[in-house]
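quick one, 165 residues, struct below
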Amino acid sequence: MSITRIGRHLLHHHWQLTRIFTPDVLARIEQAIKDSERVHAGQLRFVVEGALDGRPLWRNQPPRERALDVFSQLRIWDTAHNNGVLIYLLLADRDVEIIADRGIHERVGAAGWETICRAMEAEFRAGRFEQGVMLGIAAVSRELAKHYPPHAGETNELPDAPVVM
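---
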């Protein structure tokens, strides 16, 4: 367990999260997700977590493992075509993880998701958080549209609103 990481998570305040992801930014992200789901039959969720606390922090839970927990908690895996995708940002670590259900993951692969994550992280390092999220939504949407084009009568299975933890 890294003292530096613990300190970063303990000192990361909720106000930092709300300063970056204001209600207006969150509304634009939600709209981008709604718009993206018009061009594909997939399901996309965005979650931003300011910092780990409690058990995940003391267990030194890696961002990927935390993203898998969130994917499960939000039941993103529970879609008709197994094509749910989570974009997870752990702000204190400046780490992005994309967790995709098996239907879409076997078509895009880990390398495809990793490329999107690294592009988003580059935007975040430059302080362009909203642009980074929008870039990620657009890139994931292109993959979903390629493999799951929209179908008449498809329903929106998951909420589009971003989750702030």
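The radius of gyration is 15 Å.
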